[in-house]
Amino acid sequence: MGDGLSGLGERWVRFLRQYGPISQNENMYDEHIQRAARRLGVRPIDFPHPVETELLGLLKPHTPAATSIVLTGTAGDGKSRLCGKAWLALNGDEASWASDEIYHEAAAEIAGRSRTVGVVRDLTGLPPDGPHGPYPDKRTLLAAISRSFLEEDPDCIFIVAANDGQLMEAWRRLEDDASVAAQRTLEARLVGDATEPGRVAFFHLSYVPCAELLDLALDAILLHEGWAAAYAEGEADGFFGPDCPIRQNFELISHPSFRTRLRQLFELLDLSELHVPIRRVLLLLANAILGHPRAKERLLSPADIRPRLKQGDAHLGDIHQNLFGANLTQPRRESLEIMEFLNRFGIGEETTNRIDNILLFGAEDDALKPYYDALLVERMPASRLEHLRAVRNSYLERPEVDADGEHPFLNLMAGQRRAMFFAIPPGQVEELNLWSLTVFSHAGQFLDQVATPLRRSERVPRHILARLVNGLNRVFTGMLVSTDRELLLATSLSNSGAGTSQLLEDRVSVAPRRGERVDILPDGRLPTLTVQLDAGVEVRLSLNLVRFEFLMRVAEGALPSSFSRECHEDILAFKSKILAALNQLREPAPSDDLSFRLLTLNAAGEPADEVIEVAYA
């Protein structure tokens, strides 16, 4: 189809633009994306959702049992798209699905016999008044869905898509017995409890790792045939020529090292319990490739390239800036959670002396030049490199600030630090302190020495556990203790959360001993620091990225309140839970026992305790 005037490459880029942060809301809905694809005559971005195979397997003739299906999550998680895939698998009418109707029905053979399958593709948008298929109103339909949860062999099953916030709200308004039982089932599934009775397959799409979604989205975009067409249509001084920022950004994001580093950031988002829905992943990638602060709606189209090259500002469409929303206005950037999440890493603002020396003096310094050449010259388009050198020379000659309060090179430096972050190869990560270019200087250790070993069912290295225990001890006691072989449980005369706690309640061995141990184990989506006080008695602390960074910094000597007050309070609450569990295990102390152990440190920070007895007056 297409517009008949432009080639596939140009039409593909115009289509990709629809996924970016444009002002229209149409790009927020799968139906409108499909219409844009048909209008422009391009194959839409499509990839199998991680739960798709399991979902469609429930709708086959030979599946063991018929069950209703609930798809929940946040907006943009792909619920509508999965409903569409299910509808096609049921041989449902495509014209009916293309309408604005929210409820659809089809007959299909499932689990050995014919059944009716009802699909609610957006429970929130379902009007209270019907009719909805054979059901006169929303309440009657929800009651039928509830009954399907309880029947052993239902004649009618349902696929229901709903945002997690609205899912329970819809059922709380119903009072019949089946709906009340269905509500209990859904509440249990929402918190991961599969023991509550009920025949329902529950898919919480917000639990799908966003690093996995990134892999799928990148493959779908970068392997699209539109790019090959764009190369064929390339113009020397325009669209997809050698100086075209869209082409340069496409080639950078296709580089394996760039993809690896971007994926690491997404893994860290998963390990920070920050979810990015599919819609936002696609928005980020479209903005990364097409972003430009001076283009209409801050996104380039093919027609923009020649004017931008003539203006001499094509370099402003740099992918390293676009990834963090630098091409967008501040209000728009702050309104997009994916941009806000990535900017929490502080990439561009954080730095090291060595990195800045490479950027400033690497072109002339013999010791730094190999790094400068490998990380900048060989990876940067000639036009951008020429611009960088010109502004850098201006800064070295006259570092005075401009009318806006700072020299343009300082802004350029932030962008180049971001570029360095994505350019540093694996073999130089430690040498150049890659993760010191972020707020989370221990993020690499968290990925490589905690998350990765646990994913492979391997043990976390002893020295990492030791550092974490040392950090815990410093928070638990409020003193610069150096021990990492045992956990010190201390309180004060006032409470267990006091700044300095010198009343030693007990010591817990890190190595297994008489039922005690401290370890890091996998538990759901996050690593978990587990303190075992006795057989079957454990207290657990989920280790997200911020908590890991906090404990590692405290172990290095940072003050607990200097990095995160919230983390400090979390660790003190963890200590209180351990003490409460310990008190449950202890035998009551004799009423006449008025002794306590006072914790002291020697010059090396090693703890000792002295028994103090209080005599009766």
- What is the CA-CA span between the terminal residues? 98 Å
Q: β content, as a range?
A: 5-15%
Number of helical regions: 26
User: What's the Cα radius of gyration?
Assistant: 29 Å
Count all strands and give the number: 14
Strand order of the largest sheet: 2-3-6-1-7
Shape: flat
The residue fraction in helices comes out at 40-55%
Structural class: alpha+beta
Low-confidence stretches: none
Biggest sheet details: 5 strands, mixed
- Calculate the mean pLDDT score and round it: 91
Total number of domains: 4
How are the SSEs placed, and which strands pair?
Elements: H1 8-17, H2 30-40, H3 52-57, E1 68-73, H4 79-89, H5 94-97, E2 103-110, E3 113-120, E4 129-132, E5 135-137, H6 138-150, E6 156-163, H7 164-172, H8 177-190, E7 200-204, H9 210-222, H10 225-233, H11 245-253, H12 256-270, H13 278-290, H14 305-311, H15 319-322, H16 330-335, H17 337-343, H18 353-361, H19 369-377, H20 382-397, H21 408-423, H22 443-455, H23 462-477, E8 486-491, E9 503-509, E10 517-523, E11 526-534, E12 537-542, H24 545-555, H25 560-563, H26 565-585, E13 595-601, E14 607-613
Parallel strand pairs: 1-6, 1-7, 3-6
Antiparallel strand pairs: 2-3, 4-5, 8-9, 9-13, 10-11, 11-12, 13-14
Helix pairs in contact: 1-2, 1-10, 6-8, 7-8, 9-12, 9-13, 23-24
Any overview of this molecule?
It is a single chain. This protein has 617 residues and is an alpha+beta fold. It has 4 domains: 8-46 and 209-343, no CATH class; 52-207; 353-439, no CATH class; 457-613, no CATH class. It has helices at residues 8-17, 30-40, 52-57, 79-89, 94-97, 138-150, 164-172, 177-190, 210-222, 225-233, 245-253, 256-270, 278-290, 305-311, 319-322, 330-335, 337-343, 353-361, 369-377, 382-397, 408-423, 443-455, 462-477, 545-555, 560-563, 565-585, and strands at 68-73, 103-110, 113-120, 129-132, 135-137, 156-163, 200-204, 486-491, 503-509, 517-523, 526-534, 537-542, 595-601, 607-613. The strands form 4 sheets. The protein has a 5-stranded mixed β-sheet with strand order 2-3-6-1-7, sandwiched between helices. The chain has a 4-stranded antiparallel β-sheet with strand order 8-9-13-14. Strands 10-11-12 form a 3-stranded antiparallel β-sheet. It has 26 helices and 14 strands. Helix content is 45%, strand content 15%.
